[in-house]
Design goal:
alpha/beta, 19 helices, single chain, six-stranded mixed beta sheet
Protein backbone atom coordinates (compact mmCIF):
# COMPACT_ATOMS: atom_id res chain seq x y z
CA UNK A 1 0.00 0.00 0.00
CA UNK A 2 1.53 3.33 -1.11
CA UNK A 3 0.71 6.24 1.18
CA UNK A 4 1.45 9.96 1.37
CA UNK A 5 1.59 10.97 5.05
CA UNK A 6 2.18 14.33 6.72
CA UNK A 7 3.82 14.49 10.13
CA UNK A 8 3.70 17.66 12.21
CA UNK A 9 6.52 17.56 14.76
CA UNK A 10 6.47 20.35 17.34
CA UNK A 11 9.51 20.82 19.58
CA UNK A 12 10.13 23.27 22.37
CA UNK A 13 11.98 25.68 20.07
CA UNK A 14 10.86 24.82 16.54
CA UNK A 15 8.35 22.88 14.49
CA UNK A 16 8.24 21.32 11.07
CA UNK A 17 5.98 19.54 8.64
CA UNK A 18 7.49 16.42 7.05
CA UNK A 19 6.06 14.49 4.13
CA UNK A 20 6.48 10.74 4.26
CA UNK A 21 6.04 8.45 1.27
CA UNK A 22 5.53 4.86 2.42
CA UNK A 23 5.67 2.20 -0.27
CA UNK A 24 6.66 -1.47 -0.33
CA UNK A 25 7.88 -1.43 3.25
CA UNK A 26 10.14 1.62 2.90
CA UNK A 27 9.69 5.22 3.99
CA UNK A 28 11.21 8.31 2.43
CA UNK A 29 10.83 11.71 4.05
CA UNK A 30 11.18 15.31 2.94
CA UNK A 31 10.73 18.61 4.74
CA UNK A 32 7.78 20.69 3.59
CA UNK A 33 7.79 23.55 6.07
CA UNK A 34 9.84 24.61 9.09
CA UNK A 35 9.15 27.37 11.60
CA UNK A 36 10.36 28.64 14.95
CA UNK A 37 8.40 28.07 18.13
CA UNK A 38 8.66 31.29 20.09
CA UNK A 39 6.98 31.46 23.52
CA UNK A 40 5.50 34.82 24.44
CA UNK A 41 5.63 36.40 27.90
CA UNK A 42 2.61 38.52 28.77
CA UNK A 43 2.22 40.23 32.14
CA UNK A 44 4.63 37.83 33.81
CA UNK A 45 3.18 34.58 32.36
CA UNK A 46 4.93 32.53 29.65
CA UNK A 47 2.53 31.29 26.96
CA UNK A 48 2.66 29.11 23.84
CA UNK A 49 1.67 30.93 20.65
CA UNK A 50 -0.93 28.29 19.78
CA UNK A 51 -2.74 30.41 17.19
CA UNK A 52 0.48 30.61 15.21
CA UNK A 53 0.83 26.81 15.36
CA UNK A 54 -2.45 26.51 13.46
CA UNK A 55 -1.32 29.13 10.96
CA UNK A 56 1.90 27.19 10.29
CA UNK A 57 0.00 23.91 9.88
CA UNK A 58 -2.33 25.53 7.35
CA UNK A 59 0.71 26.90 5.50
CA UNK A 60 2.13 23.39 5.15
CA UNK A 61 -1.19 21.98 3.98
CA UNK A 62 -1.55 24.75 1.43
CA UNK A 63 2.00 24.13 0.14
CA UNK A 64 1.21 20.46 -0.47
CA UNK A 65 -2.09 21.27 -2.16
CA UNK A 66 -0.37 23.73 -4.52
CA UNK A 67 2.10 20.98 -5.47
CA UNK A 68 -0.70 18.54 -6.21
CA UNK A 69 0.07 16.15 -3.34
CA UNK A 70 -2.85 13.98 -2.23
CA UNK A 71 -2.54 13.14 1.46
CA UNK A 72 -3.68 9.87 3.03
CA UNK A 73 -3.08 10.89 6.64
CA UNK A 74 -1.90 13.56 9.08
CA UNK A 75 -0.33 13.05 12.51
CA UNK A 76 0.86 15.44 15.22
CA UNK A 77 3.43 14.97 17.98
CA UNK A 78 4.68 17.46 20.58
CA UNK A 79 6.47 17.69 23.90
CA UNK A 80 4.57 16.44 26.95
CA UNK A 81 2.67 17.84 29.96
CA UNK A 82 1.25 21.08 28.47
CA UNK A 83 -2.40 21.52 27.60
CA UNK A 84 -5.23 23.81 26.65
CA UNK A 85 -8.65 24.03 28.28
CA UNK A 86 -11.71 24.10 26.03
CA UNK A 87 -15.13 25.44 26.97
CA UNK A 88 -18.40 23.63 26.29
CA UNK A 89 -19.03 25.91 23.30
CA UNK A 90 -15.71 24.76 21.77
CA UNK A 91 -13.71 27.93 22.41
CA UNK A 92 -10.41 28.11 24.28
CA UNK A 93 -10.77 29.02 27.95
CA UNK A 94 -7.36 30.66 27.82
CA UNK A 95 -3.98 30.60 26.08
CA UNK A 96 -1.94 27.45 26.91
CA UNK A 97 0.88 28.17 29.37
CA UNK A 98 4.51 27.11 28.82
CA UNK A 99 5.90 24.39 31.09
CA UNK A 100 8.79 26.66 32.08
CA UNK A 101 6.41 29.27 33.50
CA UNK A 102 7.07 30.09 37.14
CA UNK A 103 3.56 29.31 38.41
CA UNK A 104 4.64 25.80 39.44
CA UNK A 105 7.59 26.96 41.55
CA UNK A 106 7.31 25.16 44.90
CA UNK A 107 4.13 23.38 43.83
CA UNK A 108 5.45 19.84 44.25
CA UNK A 109 6.25 20.43 47.93
CA UNK A 110 2.73 21.77 48.47
CA UNK A 111 1.28 18.65 46.83
CA UNK A 112 3.40 16.34 48.97
CA UNK A 113 1.55 17.72 52.00
CA UNK A 114 -1.72 16.50 50.46
CA UNK A 115 -0.38 13.12 49.32
CA UNK A 116 3.10 11.82 50.22
CA UNK A 117 5.64 11.70 47.40
CA UNK A 118 5.99 7.93 47.68
CA UNK A 119 2.22 7.46 47.34
CA UNK A 120 1.99 9.69 44.26
CA UNK A 121 4.74 7.66 42.63
CA UNK A 122 3.15 4.36 43.59
CA UNK A 123 -0.11 5.45 41.96
CA UNK A 124 1.34 7.05 38.82
CA UNK A 125 4.85 5.67 38.29
CA UNK A 126 5.88 9.08 36.96
CA UNK A 127 9.06 10.91 37.89
CA UNK A 128 8.75 14.23 39.68
CA UNK A 129 9.23 17.22 37.40
CA UNK A 130 8.08 20.63 38.59
CA UNK A 131 6.15 21.18 35.36
CA UNK A 132 4.10 17.96 35.30
CA UNK A 133 0.46 18.51 34.42
CA UNK A 134 -0.61 17.61 37.95
CA UNK A 135 1.34 20.54 39.40
CA UNK A 136 0.19 22.92 36.67
CA UNK A 137 -3.42 22.11 37.56
CA UNK A 138 -2.93 22.40 41.32
CA UNK A 139 -1.10 25.71 40.79
CA UNK A 140 -4.08 26.96 38.75
CA UNK A 141 -6.44 25.98 41.57
CA UNK A 142 -4.25 27.64 44.18
CA UNK A 143 -4.04 30.85 42.14
CA UNK A 144 -7.80 30.91 41.51
CA UNK A 145 -7.47 30.59 37.74
CA UNK A 146 -11.00 31.04 36.36
CA UNK A 147 -10.25 28.81 33.36
CA UNK A 148 -11.00 25.81 35.54
CA UNK A 149 -14.46 27.17 36.29
CA UNK A 150 -15.47 27.54 32.65
CA UNK A 151 -13.54 24.65 31.04
CA UNK A 152 -15.29 21.52 29.82
CA UNK A 153 -12.31 19.49 28.55
CA UNK A 154 -8.54 19.39 28.96
CA UNK A 155 -6.64 18.63 25.76
CA UNK A 156 -2.89 18.05 25.65
CA UNK A 157 -1.07 20.05 22.99
CA UNK A 158 -1.23 17.53 20.10
CA UNK A 159 -4.84 16.72 20.95
CA UNK A 160 -5.64 20.43 21.03
CA UNK A 161 -4.06 20.96 17.60
CA UNK A 162 -5.90 17.93 16.23
CA UNK A 163 -9.11 19.42 17.61
CA UNK A 164 -8.44 22.67 15.78
CA UNK A 165 -7.98 20.69 12.56
CA UNK A 166 -10.92 18.31 12.90
CA UNK A 167 -13.36 19.68 15.46
CA UNK A 168 -13.10 16.29 17.23
CA UNK A 169 -11.85 15.96 20.80
CA UNK A 170 -9.79 13.03 22.05
CA UNK A 171 -6.90 12.18 24.32
CA UNK A 172 -4.09 9.91 23.16
CA UNK A 173 -2.52 7.59 25.71
CA UNK A 174 1.22 8.30 25.33
CA UNK A 175 0.84 12.08 25.67
CA UNK A 176 -1.53 11.67 28.63
CA UNK A 177 1.00 9.40 30.33
CA UNK A 178 3.34 12.39 30.83
CA UNK A 179 0.82 14.14 33.10
CA UNK A 180 1.19 12.31 36.45
CA UNK A 181 -2.57 11.76 36.29
CA UNK A 182 -2.51 8.24 34.77
CA UNK A 183 -2.55 4.90 36.58
CA UNK A 184 0.17 2.97 34.68
CA UNK A 185 -1.31 -0.41 35.65
CA UNK A 186 -4.87 0.20 34.46
CA UNK A 187 -3.73 2.58 31.67
CA UNK A 188 -6.53 4.97 32.65
CA UNK A 189 -7.01 8.22 34.58
CA UNK A 190 -6.07 7.78 38.24
CA UNK A 191 -9.23 8.33 40.28
CA UNK A 192 -7.13 8.41 43.47
CA UNK A 193 -4.97 11.27 42.20
CA UNK A 194 -7.88 13.26 40.80
CA UNK A 195 -9.83 12.84 44.01
CA UNK A 196 -6.94 13.69 46.35
CA UNK A 197 -6.23 16.95 44.54
CA UNK A 198 -9.90 17.84 43.83
CA UNK A 199 -9.42 17.82 40.06
CA UNK A 200 -12.69 17.44 38.17
CA UNK A 201 -12.72 14.07 36.37
CA UNK A 202 -15.07 15.40 33.68
CA UNK A 203 -12.20 17.42 32.22
CA UNK A 204 -10.56 14.30 30.82
CA UNK A 205 -11.74 12.58 27.61
CA UNK A 206 -11.49 8.78 27.27
CA UNK A 207 -7.99 7.62 26.34
CA UNK A 208 -7.22 6.49 22.79
CA UNK A 209 -4.34 4.26 21.69
CA UNK A 210 -1.79 5.27 19.01
CA UNK A 211 -3.12 4.66 15.53
CA UNK A 212 -6.70 5.74 16.32
CA UNK A 213 -8.49 7.80 13.66
CA UNK A 214 -9.29 11.14 15.30
CA UNK A 215 -11.36 12.63 12.47
CA UNK A 216 -11.21 14.37 9.10
CA UNK A 217 -10.04 17.91 8.41
CA UNK A 218 -12.98 20.26 8.79
CA UNK A 219 -14.65 21.45 5.61
CA UNK A 220 -13.44 24.98 6.39
CA UNK A 221 -9.74 23.96 6.62
CA UNK A 222 -10.05 21.52 3.71
CA UNK A 223 -11.41 24.30 1.49
CA UNK A 224 -9.12 27.04 2.82
CA UNK A 225 -5.96 25.00 2.17
CA UNK A 226 -7.19 23.10 -0.88
CA UNK A 227 -5.95 19.79 0.53
CA UNK A 228 -9.33 18.09 0.95
CA UNK A 229 -10.78 16.23 3.93
CA UNK A 230 -7.73 14.24 5.00
CA UNK A 231 -7.87 11.80 7.96
CA UNK A 232 -6.09 12.97 11.12
CA UNK A 233 -4.66 10.05 13.10
CA UNK A 234 -3.74 10.08 16.77
CA UNK A 235 -0.16 8.82 16.47
CA UNK A 236 2.14 8.24 19.44
CA UNK A 237 1.63 11.92 20.21
CA UNK A 238 4.38 12.34 22.78
CA UNK A 239 7.48 13.05 20.72
CA UNK A 240 9.60 10.63 22.72
CA UNK A 241 7.06 7.84 22.23
CA UNK A 242 7.26 8.42 18.47
CA UNK A 243 11.07 8.46 18.61
CA UNK A 244 11.21 5.20 20.58
CA UNK A 245 8.88 3.58 18.04
CA UNK A 246 11.48 4.41 15.36
CA UNK A 247 14.39 2.63 17.07
CA UNK A 248 15.59 -0.07 14.64
CA UNK A 249 16.39 -2.51 17.44
CA UNK A 250 16.75 -6.25 16.86
CA UNK A 251 18.12 -7.27 20.28
CA UNK A 252 15.58 -6.97 23.13
CA UNK A 253 18.32 -6.07 25.66
CA UNK A 254 18.76 -2.52 24.46
CA UNK A 255 18.54 0.90 26.01
CA UNK A 256 17.88 4.11 24.15
CA UNK A 257 18.41 7.84 24.25
CA UNK A 258 16.07 10.17 22.41
CA UNK A 259 18.56 12.99 22.08
CA UNK A 260 17.55 16.60 21.65
CA UNK A 261 16.91 19.54 23.98
CA UNK A 262 16.29 16.83 26.55
CA UNK A 263 17.96 13.43 26.58
CA UNK A 264 15.40 10.74 27.38
CA UNK A 265 17.29 7.62 28.44
CA UNK A 266 15.46 4.39 29.06
CA UNK A 267 14.29 0.94 28.03
CA UNK A 268 11.11 -0.67 26.76
CA UNK A 269 9.33 -2.90 29.28
CA UNK A 270 5.96 -4.68 29.39
CA UNK A 271 4.84 -3.77 32.92
CA UNK A 272 5.43 -0.57 34.93
CA UNK A 273 7.90 -0.38 37.80
CA UNK A 274 6.81 1.91 40.63
CA UNK A 275 8.98 0.85 43.56
CA UNK A 276 10.79 3.25 45.86
CA UNK A 277 14.07 2.28 44.13
CA UNK A 278 12.69 3.41 40.79
CA UNK A 279 11.48 6.66 42.35
CA UNK A 280 14.85 7.37 43.98
CA UNK A 281 16.60 6.82 40.65
CA UNK A 282 14.14 9.39 39.22
CA UNK A 283 13.01 7.06 36.46
CA UNK A 284 9.53 7.36 35.04
CA UNK A 285 6.92 5.04 33.49
CA UNK A 286 5.41 6.57 30.37
CA UNK A 287 3.12 4.96 27.84
CA UNK A 288 4.39 3.40 24.64
CA UNK A 289 2.97 1.68 21.60
CA UNK A 290 1.57 -1.85 21.60
CA UNK A 291 1.08 -2.01 25.36
CA UNK A 292 4.68 -1.17 26.24
CA UNK A 293 5.97 1.09 28.99
CA UNK A 294 8.81 3.52 28.39
CA UNK A 295 10.91 3.28 31.55
CA UNK A 296 13.05 6.35 31.18
CA UNK A 297 14.81 9.25 32.80
CA UNK A 298 14.96 12.88 31.72
CA UNK A 299 18.52 14.14 31.43
CA UNK A 300 19.09 17.78 30.59
CA UNK A 301 20.45 17.02 27.11
CA UNK A 302 21.62 19.49 24.50
CA UNK A 303 19.72 22.36 26.15
CA UNK A 304 22.96 23.42 27.87
CA UNK A 305 25.09 23.56 24.70
CA UNK A 306 22.23 25.26 22.82
CA UNK A 307 22.04 27.94 25.51
CA UNK A 308 25.82 28.37 25.45
CA UNK A 309 25.75 28.89 21.69
CA UNK A 310 22.87 31.35 21.99
CA UNK A 311 24.85 33.43 24.50
CA UNK A 312 28.04 33.31 22.43
CA UNK A 313 26.16 34.30 19.27
CA UNK A 314 24.79 37.34 21.11
CA UNK A 315 28.14 38.43 22.56
CA UNK A 316 30.66 37.57 19.83
CA UNK A 317 31.09 36.14 16.35
CA UNK A 318 28.62 33.38 15.55
CA UNK A 319 29.88 29.82 15.21
CA UNK A 320 28.06 26.72 14.01
CA UNK A 321 27.50 23.63 16.12
CA UNK A 322 29.99 21.80 13.87
CA UNK A 323 32.63 24.45 14.64
CA UNK A 324 31.92 24.10 18.36
CA UNK A 325 32.52 20.35 18.07
CA UNK A 326 35.87 21.00 16.33
CA UNK A 327 36.85 23.41 19.11
CA UNK A 328 35.84 20.87 21.76
CA UNK A 329 37.95 18.15 20.14
CA UNK A 330 41.04 20.33 20.55
CA UNK A 331 40.32 21.25 24.19
CA UNK A 332 41.80 19.59 27.27
CA UNK A 333 40.05 16.32 28.25
CA UNK A 334 38.37 16.03 31.65
CA UNK A 335 39.34 19.50 32.87
CA UNK A 336 36.16 19.64 34.97
CA UNK A 337 32.85 17.80 35.30
CA UNK A 338 29.34 19.19 35.75
CA UNK A 339 26.11 17.50 36.75
CA UNK A 340 24.03 18.49 33.74
CA UNK A 341 20.84 17.99 35.78
CA UNK A 342 21.78 20.46 38.49
CA UNK A 343 19.17 23.19 39.00
CA UNK A 344 21.83 25.73 38.01
CA UNK A 345 21.29 24.82 34.36
CA UNK A 346 17.47 24.74 34.14
CA UNK A 347 16.67 28.33 33.22
CA UNK A 348 17.83 30.20 30.10
CA UNK A 349 20.40 32.98 30.22
CA UNK A 350 24.23 33.24 30.25
CA UNK A 351 24.89 29.51 30.42
CA UNK A 352 28.68 29.77 29.91
CA UNK A 353 28.99 31.88 33.07
CA UNK A 354 26.79 29.44 35.00
CA UNK A 355 29.12 26.61 34.02
CA UNK A 356 32.14 28.58 35.17
CA UNK A 357 30.45 29.44 38.47
CA UNK A 358 29.46 25.80 39.02
CA UNK A 359 33.05 24.68 38.49
CA UNK A 360 34.30 27.39 40.85
CA UNK A 361 31.81 26.42 43.58
CA UNK A 362 32.71 22.75 43.27
CA UNK A 363 36.44 23.52 43.54
CA UNK A 364 37.29 22.49 39.99
CA UNK A 365 39.27 24.18 37.25
CA UNK A 366 37.29 27.04 35.77
CA UNK A 367 37.05 26.68 31.97
CA UNK A 368 37.75 29.52 29.58
CA UNK A 369 36.94 29.65 25.90
CA UNK A 370 34.11 28.18 23.89
CA UNK A 371 35.89 24.94 23.00
CA UNK A 372 36.77 24.09 26.59
CA UNK A 373 33.29 24.80 27.89
CA UNK A 374 31.72 22.79 25.06
CA UNK A 375 34.03 19.84 25.79
CA UNK A 376 33.04 19.87 29.46
CA UNK A 377 29.36 19.82 28.47
CA UNK A 378 29.78 16.93 26.01
CA UNK A 379 31.92 14.87 28.40
CA UNK A 380 29.54 15.51 31.28
CA UNK A 381 26.54 14.47 29.17
CA UNK A 382 28.27 11.20 28.27
CA UNK A 383 29.12 10.58 31.92
CA UNK A 384 25.53 11.25 33.02
CA UNK A 385 24.38 8.79 30.36
CA UNK A 386 26.67 6.23 32.00
CA UNK A 387 25.06 6.95 35.34
CA UNK A 388 21.63 6.49 33.81
CA UNK A 389 22.55 3.21 32.12
CA UNK A 390 24.06 1.83 35.33
CA UNK A 391 20.95 2.71 37.35
CA UNK A 392 18.84 1.06 34.66
CA UNK A 393 20.89 -2.14 34.77
CA UNK A 394 21.63 -2.54 38.47
CA UNK A 395 18.57 -1.08 40.18
CA UNK A 396 15.71 -1.51 37.70
CA UNK A 397 16.09 -4.07 34.91
CA UNK A 398 18.47 -6.36 36.82
CA UNK A 399 20.20 -7.29 33.57
CA UNK A 400 22.95 -5.92 31.36
CA UNK A 401 22.17 -3.54 28.55
CA UNK A 402 24.06 -4.81 25.50
CA UNK A 403 23.75 -1.81 23.22
CA UNK A 404 22.61 1.80 23.44
CA UNK A 405 20.56 3.26 20.58
CA UNK A 406 20.59 7.04 20.12
CA UNK A 407 17.87 8.59 17.96
CA UNK A 408 16.84 12.17 17.35
CA UNK A 409 18.75 15.26 16.34
CA UNK A 410 21.51 14.64 18.87
CA UNK A 411 22.41 11.37 17.13
CA UNK A 412 24.16 13.45 14.45
CA UNK A 413 26.74 14.70 16.98
CA UNK A 414 29.62 12.31 16.26
CA UNK A 415 31.77 13.58 19.12
CA UNK A 416 29.05 13.08 21.72
CA UNK A 417 28.25 9.64 20.31
CA UNK A 418 31.89 8.57 20.57
CA UNK A 419 32.21 10.06 24.06
CA UNK A 420 29.11 8.09 25.06
CA UNK A 421 30.52 4.80 23.73
CA UNK A 422 33.74 5.47 25.63
CA UNK A 423 31.96 6.45 28.84
CA UNK A 424 29.60 3.44 28.95
CA UNK A 425 32.24 1.08 27.47
CA UNK A 426 29.89 -0.59 25.00
CA UNK A 427 28.54 -0.05 21.51
CA UNK A 428 26.37 2.89 20.56
CA UNK A 429 24.12 2.77 17.48
CA UNK A 430 23.25 6.26 16.25
CA UNK A 431 20.26 7.00 14.06
CA UNK A 432 17.89 7.70 12.62
CA UNK A 433 18.24 11.39 13.40
CA UNK A 434 14.63 12.05 12.41
CA UNK A 435 13.31 9.37 14.76
CA UNK A 436 10.40 11.39 16.09
CA UNK A 437 8.82 12.22 12.76
CA UNK A 438 9.61 8.73 11.39
CA UNK A 439 7.69 7.19 14.28
CA UNK A 440 4.87 9.68 13.71
CA UNK A 441 4.60 8.75 10.01
CA UNK A 442 4.86 4.99 10.45
CA UNK A 443 2.22 4.90 13.20
CA UNK A 444 -0.05 6.66 10.72
CA UNK A 445 0.71 3.84 8.28
CA UNK A 446 -0.13 1.37 11.05
CA UNK A 447 -3.41 3.16 11.76
CA UNK A 448 -4.28 2.99 8.06
CA UNK A 449 -3.58 -0.76 7.92
CA UNK A 450 -0.35 -0.68 5.88
CA UNK A 451 1.79 -1.90 8.82
CA UNK A 452 0.53 -4.74 10.98
CA UNK A 453 2.65 -4.49 14.15
CA UNK A 454 5.71 -2.96 15.83
CA UNK A 455 8.07 -5.60 14.46
CA UNK A 456 7.10 -4.66 10.92
CA UNK A 457 7.31 -0.97 11.78
CA UNK A 458 10.89 -1.31 13.06
CA UNK A 459 11.84 -3.41 10.04
CA UNK A 460 10.65 -0.53 7.87
CA UNK A 461 12.87 1.86 9.83
CA UNK A 462 15.91 -0.40 9.39
CA UNK A 463 15.29 -0.75 5.65
CA UNK A 464 14.72 2.95 5.13
CA UNK A 465 17.36 4.77 7.19
CA UNK A 466 21.09 4.12 7.80
CA UNK A 467 22.64 3.95 11.26
CA UNK A 468 26.23 4.42 12.46
CA UNK A 469 27.93 2.19 15.04
CA UNK A 470 30.38 3.66 17.57
CA UNK A 471 32.68 1.34 19.50
CA UNK A 472 34.63 2.23 22.67
CA UNK A 473 38.03 3.66 21.77
CA UNK A 474 41.24 4.29 23.66
CA UNK A 475 42.02 3.98 27.35
CA UNK A 476 38.82 4.06 29.44
CA UNK A 477 40.68 4.90 32.67
CA UNK A 478 40.24 8.64 32.07
CA UNK A 479 36.49 8.14 31.77
CA UNK A 480 36.45 6.01 34.93
CA UNK A 481 38.26 8.71 36.89
CA UNK A 482 35.98 11.45 35.57
CA UNK A 483 32.95 9.31 36.43
CA UNK A 484 34.10 9.06 40.04
CA UNK A 485 34.30 12.85 40.13
CA UNK A 486 30.73 13.07 38.79
CA UNK A 487 29.45 10.67 41.43
CA UNK A 488 30.79 12.97 44.15
CA UNK A 489 28.72 15.82 42.70
CA UNK A 490 25.42 13.92 42.70
Amino acid sequence: MALNLLGFDFGASSGRAMLGEYDSGKLTISEIHRFTNDPVELNGTLYWDVQRFVYEMKTALNTLAKNGVKLDGIGIDTWGVDFGLVCENGSLAGIPVHYRDKRTNGEMDRCFKVMPKETIFEKTGLAFMFFNTLYQLTAMKRLGDKQLDIADKLLFMPDLLAYFLTGEMGCEYTIASTSQLIDPYTRSWSKDILSAFSIDERLFPPLQQPGTLRGLLTEQIANETGIGRVPVIAVAEHDTASAVAAIPATDPDFAYISSGTWSLLGAEIRSPLSSVEVMKANYTNEGGIDGTIRLLKNIMGLWIINECKREWDLRSDKVSFAELVEMAMKAQPFLSVIDVDDDTFIDPGDMPNRIREYCRKTNQAVPEGRGQIARIVYESLALKYRWGVERLEKDLLKKRVKVLHIVGGGSKNELLNQFTANAINRDVIAGPSEGTVIGNLLVQAMGLGAIKDMAQLRQAVARSFPTVAYHPQGDVSGWDEAYERLLKLL
